[in-house]
Amino acid sequence: MAYWDRKHYHDNRSLARWSSFPALVMGLLLTTSLAWGHAFPDHSDPRVGWTVDKSPAQVRIWFDGAIEPAFSTIKVVNADGQQVNKQDGRVNAADPTLLEVDLPPLSPGKYRVFWSVVAIDTHRTEGDYPFTVAGAR
Question: Which parts of the sequence belong to the CopC domain (predicted)?
Answer without folding.
Answer: 38-133
